[in-house]
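Module 6 notes. Inverse folding takes a fixed backbone as the condition and produces residue identities as the prediction. Think of it as a translation problem where the source language is geometry and the target language is the twenty amino acids. Below is one complete input and output pair. Work through it position by position during the lab.
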């Protein structure tokens, strides 16, 4: 056998059984009730050059914070797109960044901006966060993400490392841990969430566990030096997670249109689902797409992995993104027949559908608040990236 499939299992911590509310497919009267009107662009200006954007965040004043991988700093723009200042610089001191990487994340809570950071530029997981005050945009303090008392939880968190944080109230943070195994022979893998204080101390037991992404592991024999190629493909299911404005955890698996809400103790509050027709998945078409396109795995490796996979799913997942706006509405992107777009559903937290609209895949929506949607876009001619703000218009 040239490959194996890493599949993890959901072990959600529940203290009560809750009936799932089932909702039928919504008719087309909800389609196109919402539109996005381009309003402002945040990017390179005469005052600043913006390189590769790793992440961005938006505060209550509609100021936009952009983490720049090339310059290892965070650019700040006002409501009108004018450059204000930069936060941090390359370094390993307080308020400095060893690296800004694709895994860098930014979150805002209680007038503070949290930015994940690394102890050094070659680290593969963020082990601290730099916190800045939104009042005067000054550095506030650093937080150790790798828990100081992690040894007390060795049975649960052995070989797990922090990858993201979510600020909570009362100077608490929810830290997302992923397992970094020494080999890829084990069949189980998952994601764990724990609550820590700003000194890095875990508060109580883990909150709950999600299934991790599925990965194919393929032994490449025809290379100069044989090696294991490991990749997670977009047609495998994965976990989605968001925080509501009420501090509830919102969770889903992409293979079904089913949303779950948990309280801070990890207890299930409620769930709802919508029936959704998933798109069929052709092995031949997937192989062809990777044969004709570039892959970081090497020439032909991705196509070979798909060609020899035993358990390729028969359909694409139902969902791709899960966001919560500042009015506690859910924004869920679904995978439809046209692979140039996603069909976004806007729902009340009860599951009631407010609107549906189509949006290009190459303009991913990352933030929704204050009546605006913010996307990450790239200019075709120059290749420059920018954050674009759109006014949300609802019929």
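Target side of the pair, the amino acids:
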């Amino acid at each position: 056998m040239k490959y194996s499939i890493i599949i993890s299992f959901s072990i959600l911590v529940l203290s009560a059984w809750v009936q799932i509310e089932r909702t039928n497919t919504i008719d087309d009267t909800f389609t196109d009730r919402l539109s996005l009107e381009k309003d402002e662009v945040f990017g390179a200006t005469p005052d600043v050059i913006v390189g590769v954007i790793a992440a961005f965040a938006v505060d209550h004043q509609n100021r936009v914070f952009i983490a720049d991988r090339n310059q290892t700093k965070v650019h700040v723009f006002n409501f009108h797109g004018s450059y204000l200042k930069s936060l941090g610089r390359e370094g390993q001191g307080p308020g400095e960044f060893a690296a800004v990487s694709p895994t860098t994340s930014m979150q805002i809570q209680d007038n503070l901006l949290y930015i994940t950071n690394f102890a050094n530029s070659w680290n593969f997981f963020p082990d601290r966060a730099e916190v800045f005050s939104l009042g005067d945009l000054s550095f506030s303090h650093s937080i150790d993400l790798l828990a100081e008392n992690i040894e007390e939880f060795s049975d649960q968190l052995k070989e797990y490392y922090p990858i993201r944080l979510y600020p909570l109230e009362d100077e608490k943070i929810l830290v997302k841990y992923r397992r970094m195994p020494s080999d890829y022979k084990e069949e189980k893998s998952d994601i764990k969430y724990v609550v820590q204080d700003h000194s890095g101390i875990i508060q109580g037991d883990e909150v709950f566990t999600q299934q991790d992404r599925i990965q194919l592991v393929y032994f490449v024999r025809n290379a100069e030096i044989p090696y294991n190629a490991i990749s997670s493909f977009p047609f495998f299911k994965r976990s989605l997670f968001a925080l509501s404005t009420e501090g509830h955890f919102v969770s889903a698996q992409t293979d079904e249109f089913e949303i779950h809400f948990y309280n801070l103790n990890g207890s299930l509050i409620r769930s709802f689902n919508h029936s959704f027709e998933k798109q069929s998945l052709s092995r031949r078409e997937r192989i062809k797409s990777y044969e004709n396109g570039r892959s970081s795995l090497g020439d032909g490796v991705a196509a070979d992995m798909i060609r020899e996979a035993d358990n390729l799913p028969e359909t694409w997942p139902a969902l791709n993104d899960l966001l919560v706006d500042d009015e506690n509405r859910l924004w869920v992107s679904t995978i439809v027949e046209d692979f140039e777009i996603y069909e976004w559903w806007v729902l009340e937290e009860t599951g009631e559908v407010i609107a549906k609209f189509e949006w290009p895949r190459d303009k991913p929506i990352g933030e929704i608040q204050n009546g605006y949607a913010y996307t990450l876009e790239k200019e075709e001619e120059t290749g420059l990236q920018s954050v674009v703000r759109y006014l949300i218009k609802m019929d």
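Reference fact for the lab report: The chain has a mean pLDDT of 86.
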